[in-house]
Specification:
With 436 residues, the chain is an alpha+beta fold. It has four domains: 36-56 and 297-385, Roll (Outer membrane lipoprotein wza fold like), CATH 3.10.560.10; 67-77 and 238-293, wza like domain (wza like fold), CATH 3.30.1950.10; 88-95 and 178-233, 2-Layer Sandwich (wza like fold); 106-174, wza like domain (wza like fold, 2-Layer Sandwich), CATH 3.30.1950.10. It is built from nine helices and 20 strands. It has helices at 3-23, 28-33, 148-159, 207-218, 267-278, 323-329, 360-364, 387-418, 422-426; strands at residues 67-74, 88-94, 106-111, 120-125, 131-133, 140-142, 169-174, 180-184, 190-192, 199-201, 226-233, 242-245, 251-253, 259-261, 286-293, 298-303, 311-316, 337-346, 353-359, 380-385. The strands form seven sheets. A five-stranded mixed beta sheet has the order 17-16-20-18-19. A three-stranded antiparallel beta sheet has the order 12-1-15, covered by helices on one side. A hairpin with a 6-residue loop joins strand 18 (337-346) and strand 19 (353-359). The two termini are 23 Å apart. Mean pLDDT is 83; it is low at 22-36.
């Protein structure tokens, strides 16, 4: 055996033994433990909420980055409101009993001198072409746009070609409403009622003034019409309904209506604040406010990584979370984790915190609810590392550089020995002979 190789191996073993003795000595474990908080063995008050004995969380207060769902219940512009393009008006027309006949009207026609097998005595509907059909024997007569007396004479004139001196009585049974429903103010600022009624300009008018203008216009087609105009929808209005993120400054933005401060408020208080702000622009606004996404009230699950970095997980509070629920969020304990778990609960009055130790075997294998505590906002569920895994990781970190250096040294020495001396002359054959 090569003496140089023996010396290198002995030195390597000595270094490794020294490192092991140094790391495993009295000063090694306290250094590792000093970085790990050790929970005190104090008694946990029986009032601490836990599984089967949970508590109700305080009324939720809004904070960034919660997402609020705001729904508009009543959004009406402040009066006087001046009509704009794309506003939607509801226009209803009520006609008088002596109005001109229109398509869709139902009129009663009576002609005593009609044929016995084809009497004329009953209601007739004015068709879309403006005529009433008196039957196969008499044909159709146009009466749309005529007053009652004029239509009566027109029907009698038509029947005189078939009957001898016919007497006709006509009166309105049911008046149609040719103009009824929503109408959008179009580009150009007009409301179009279709032929033959035409268009009426209304932009810039109040609803009351628009009603007067429309009634004056339709008086050309109807006798003493009664017009009712109301606003159904405000066009090009800022949309309020939807999801609104609470910004870092504690406000929600309502578009052109500005921002409203809601941080620290309950949902009822946020509703009042939003309605009060909108009352500057709208008439008695009403909104519904709910939380779409609970983002501000959270707890943390921290797993020690056994020297390879800790894991920190952030979960929103649901109000029903326990330690077992928290661990289930990460699909159980990791291979480097121990069964030593506790909750660190911050105290608002001091730098101290409350430590709640968890019996992992008890809450899992034995279904004991005693230490399966309810998690509150701000809690830290801490899962300690496995000491053997942490020791193995630390030892690997310490030895690995030495192993690399020594391995490189051994490889270099072996390579140099291989290509020096007798090896270069004959591959290790002292005679240098090539005979085998």
């Amino acid at each position: 055996m090569n003496p140089q190789r023996n010396i290198i191996q002995v030195l390597t073993l000595c270094c490794v033994a020294g490192l092991l003795a140094t790391y495993c000595g009295c000063s090694s474990l306290p250094i590792h433990q000093a970085t790990e908080p050790v929970p005190p063995g104090s008694m946990v008050p029986p009032s601490v909420p836990r599984e089967l004995c949970k508590t109700v969380l305080p009324i939720y207060t809004v904070a960034p980055p919660d997402i609020l769902q705001i729904d508009a219940v009543r959004i009406v512009p402040r009066w006087p409101y001046y009509l704009r393009v794309y506003d939607v008006l509801n226009v209803e027309l009520e006609r008088s009993s002596n109005d001109f006949f229109q398509q869709g009207d139902v009129i009663q026609i009576t002609a005593p001198g009609a044929f016995l097998n084809a009497p004329i005595d009953g209601p007739f509907v004015i068709q879309a072409n403006g005529t009433v059909d008196l039957g196969f024997n008499y044909g159709a007569v146009r009466v749309a746009g005529m007053a009652r007396e004029q239509a009566q004479l027109e029907i009698a004139k038509h029947l005189s070609a078939i009957l001898k001196d016919p007497t006709v009585t006509v009166y309105l049974v049911e008046a149609s409403k040719p103009i009824q429903g929503p109408f959008t103010i179009q580009l150009g600022g007009v409301v179009s009622f279709g032929p033959p009624y035409g268009q009426v300009p209304v932009v810039g008018l109040t609803v009351e003034d628009a009603q007067i203008v429309i009634q004056r216009h339709l008086s050309r087609f109807f006798i003493n019409p009664k017009i009712t105009v109301s606003i159904v929808e405000v066009g090009a209005q800022q949309e309020i309904s939807g999801e609104h993120l609470v910004g870092p400054d504690g406000t929600v933005t309502l578009g052109s209506y500005g921002s409203v401060m809601v941080v620290g408020m309950t949902l009822a208080q946020a509703k009042q604040a939003i309605e009060y702000h909108l009352s500057q622009f709208l008439d008695s606004p009403q909104v519904a406010v709910s939380v779409f996404s609970y983002n501000s009230k959270v707890y943390y699950l921290i797993t020690q990584g056994g020297g390879m970095g800790d894991g920190v997980y952030r979960f929103p509070i649901t109000g029903n979370d326990t330690v077992l629920d928290a661990v289930a969020q990460i699909n159980g304990l990791e291979p480097v984790s121990s069964k030593k778990i506790w909750i660190a609960r911050p105290s608002p009055c001091s730098d101290a915190c409350q430590i709640l130790e968890v019996d992992w075997h008890g809450i899992t294998a034995m279904a004991q609810a005693k230490t399966n505590y309810q998690i509150l906002p701000g809690d830290r569920v801490f899962v300690a590392e496995d000491k053997l895994v942490a020791f193995d990781t630390a030892l690997s970190k310490l030895i690995a550089p030495v192993e690399r250096v020594m391995g490189f040294s051994i490889l270099g020495a072996s390579t140099a020995t291989r290509f020096s001396g007798n090896v270069l002359k004959g591959g290790g054959n002292p005679t240098g002979s090539r005979n085998f």
